[in-house]
Fold:
Amino acid sequence: MFTSLVERMQPTTDNGRTFARYSGILAVLVVAWLIPNYIATSTEGPLPLFTVVLCAVYALFALGLNIVVGFAGLLDLGYVAFFLFGAYTSAWLMSDFFYQVNPRDPSDKQFSFSVHFLSTASSKIAGIHLSFWIVIIAAAAIAAVAGLVIGAPTLRLKSDYLALVTLGFGEILPEVFRNGDNVAGYNLTNGTKGIGPVDRIGMGFLDKLPGIPSTIVSSDYKTKYYVILLFCALFMYASIKLRDGRLGRAWMAIREDELAASLMGVPLMRTKLWSYAVGAIAGGVGGAFYATIVGTVNVDNFTFSFSIIVLCAVILGGMGNVWGAVLGGVAITWFNYTGLVYIGAQVNKGLGTHINLKNYEFMFFGFVLVLMMLFRPEGFIPAARSKQLKKADKQVQSIETAGVES
Amino acid sequence: MTENLLDARAVRVQFGGLVAVNDVDFNIPTGSIVALIGPNGAGKTTFFNVLTGLYTPSHGQVDFDGKSVLGVAPHKIAASGMARTFQNIRLFGAMTASENVMVAMHPHLKSGVLSTIVRTPKQRREERDARLMAKELLEFVGIAGVDDEFAKNLPYGDQRRLEVARALALRPKLLLLDEPTAGMNPQESATFTQFVHRVRDQRGVTVLLIEHDMKVVMGVSERITVLEYGSKIAEGTPQDIRSDQRVIEAYLGKSGTEAAK
Structure:
């Protein structure tokens, strides 16, 4: 498996392993390229392109939560907050929602400037329209700040208490946005009606490259896939580098023994806040991208179950493992959006029954979770360290039993 | 440099009605090796916890290196040069020996998030140096070659040594050792006595230890402070302490000392 080669503790000078690692990464890239071109189908079948794009979005979410839960060991049940901030950033900066800015009807004009910047939207359309690539940076920044603001009071709590309070935040924020259509007379979120349509993604000078359009139209999932793949790759790389550096060690030390870490000079609050902020960035970027692919942002999309699904993706994939988080996110999303329906259709065709497997979604979900916890609690791709630790435990165990028997 | 590296005056720690540390005056001359002894529950570890910033005393004053440590966050006290080990080993189990040591270098390393992600030459150099320094420290405490072993998988004695290596990575001025020879056999304890001298002489670190093994205490320390029920009952050179009637009573009990007569 490429994972055992890619996922290692320390950078090593050993050439053989370095070669194996790079060939592993190359193999992953080839598969990532093959999927939209040869494997995925446009709409029907076991792997429609839309699902592929969603899988990649959830992989990004899982990567972000993995920093908080997997690396720093902080149980966060309110990850939906960052998804929400990211999505609304897109909605605010890439739609006609703030029509007062640059209005079509001159009598509505409240601001004298026009906010169209490198946007794909026609300059005749009202509202703020910034380039997607600027919005992504803004979404990352807003989510990171949200992470700091939510983290500052909550991260003083430990384990279960932290989980409960983050859960609370995850529940409160969507309600705030649901009721945000009349904040002291201003409509900030459009309440339950949601905001849309969100502008398309422009590719700028990249349209000179073969196969890349200047604007990604709504049905062009292939280019959308490349965009989200780019974010995933960047975030994976950043995750791995951070894990192996000074901050990653501090995160792990806090996960292992918070008190000892602080007595070894690790500033607890600051280190935890960094994990929140970095994790939030993935949530914000994923949210902003998600808003552009679905075209509208509605507060009903941001539920507690989102936080749980992403958390499950991290746990199923293998806590603390970057590749595990990606696999977990992809697997769960595929099952959710296509897998169950497709398998159900095949079963019905074969047996002549009329069962809607999608109705039993959570039953399967629970079943899989129980099985995983029984047979592979460390996840699909466990972090290299937990794998080695488990091996050592087994050795000790076998020595002990051997001692008893002899 | 001040004469006393650590200066504690009238330190009192109270948990509800229980006075764990009762108006203790205590100081550590720079460059010395000092022991804190006393029966179980005498308040030794509580006193350690005051010094390292885990507890705030009800009243009293603690100056370390000329500055008060009261109300200062534990990680800041650690960064200012006070390192400790724990009575029950508290290593980062799922991290390698080398990583354990490198965690304690945290205050001395400079790399931020961005320079770590883009791996600037400076960050790479810093990481390489840190790894080398960790290797050196592991050699110094006598467990060379375990760099990539998980702390959890090391034998007990090596874990104790690793804790000291990790504490030394903070580049401390004062090293607090909480029962460092607990669970060691007599040979290991004897080697440990030499080791403490080596830490002081080669690294210039002042040492304060809590210890139950009297052979170690008498062999290693230049000055001994005895606590009983949170109060200081004696202080002096090993010779003084050995012949102090109150100390003998505290350890053997009154009837015990009478029987010995």
